[in-house]
Write a structure and sequence with these properties.
Blueprint (H helix, E strand, L loop, with lengths): L2 H13 L5 H14 L1 H4 L33 H9 L21 H5 L6 H22 L4
Length: about 140
């Protein structure tokens, strides 16, 4: 099964929406609001804040290429959720990155998510974002 479809399907299930269109648009919106400022809308590393990073922002389009042709899903997930630190991302308190992918952050955003849905909401956001980054890969 195509892993891209799996990502979108998982996101759709987590947010309770059938089909992949919502998951795809959610991932793109998440990317634009969280990643594009450094990595660029096209993922090549030319975002408006890239110049402020020592050495610039790396291209996200070569993740599969640099991993033997396989998209490094697990590594990307752990970078996004903070389990794997990336020096250029700074601390989780950094304003441009923040703690937006933590359950505590989601719980603080109203009764819709609450404690029960916080983890699912985070997983949906992260999976949608990974889905979009996967689509950016150079062929």
């Amino acid at each position: 099964m195509n892993r891209l479809i799996t990502f979108s399907a998982a996101v759709s299930l987590l947010v309770g929406v059938t089909g992949t269109a919502f998951a795809e648009s959610m991932g793109e919106a998440e990317y634009k609001s969280s990643c594009a400022t450094c990595h660029g809308v096209d993922g090549k590393g030319g975002g408006e804040f890239a110049e402020f990073l020592k050495g610039g922002a790396p291209s996200l389009r070569v993740l599969s290429k640099n991993n033997g042709g396989v998209f490094p899903y697990d590594r990307v997930y752990k970078i996004i959720d903070g389990r794997t630190a990336v020096k250029k991302h700074g601390s989780r308190e950094m304003p441009i990155w923040g703690d937006q992918y933590t359950a505590e952050s989601v719980k603080d955003h109203g009764p819709f998510f609450g404690e029960y849905y916080a983890e699912d909401a985070i997983n949906a956001r992260v999976l949608g974002l990974i889905d979009h980054i996967h689509k950016l890969q150079d062929k």
